Amino acid sequence: MKRKLNPLTRELKLAKQLWGDIARVRLTELRHLLQRYKLSVALGEVIDLDNHWYVTHSGLIRLATRRRCDGIRTTLQQRLSDPASGRWVFRATVYKSPGSRGFVGYGDADPSNVSTLVHGAEMRIAETRAVNRALRKAYGIGLCSVEELGSLSSNRGPASDHVPLTKQSTNSSSNGQPRLRDQLCLLIRQHNLNPTLVKAYAADFCGTSSLKEANRDLVQSFISHLTACAKENRDMLVCRLNSYAQPVSEVKQ
Prior knowledge:
Elements: H1 7-19, H2 24-37, E1 46-49, E2 52-55, H3 57-66, E3 71-76, E4 88-95, E5 103-109, H4 122-138, H5 165-168, H6 180-190, H7 195-206, H8 216-232, H9 234-242
Helix pairs in contact: 1-8, 3-4, 6-8, 8-9
């Protein structure tokens, strides 16, 4: 009879399937993160980029929900913002309990520190960054969130956001491999998944309002994540997708 793996072992196994061989020290780091903060690789709450672990906005929100966060307040910092140039600054305050003085975090975004794929969404990104920083302070998470990164490709040398959009499109091909959109469609058909729910899950995973706004690297990471989840436990994946069929109850704002 096949031995049933405990939840933590399943999470670590999934991480290896998603990101290949992981150095022992980094695997230890991941184990610590999963145990201490109850984050989940399967739910896209922690991801690997350039050999560094990052928590996601959805992971922080769910962590706050589990810890019974009393609320989150966000305020636009008008004096520091400049709508004409697309610069926005937000202040977020997380209240862990009634009567709490709150934990404050600031987030800024402008065309120079976000991917070209999400130009026009700087206001939303700034608010998300502020909320993430406040949540990390409130719950003692030293791990940076992926949404706080200025640009996912900014540390990768010449191939950065300055590459023409036609080469960064999530539907472009590379080295003769199928385009990302085609890979995702094939995966949906292969495992008989609901495409609408998959797109909603992908946007949540990538931390964007829609899949088309996601950076190519994040879309590729999501496809790898979805592939591993479908092979590991399709029923659990379907349950996860079904949660996007209706509004998810989150921390009040």
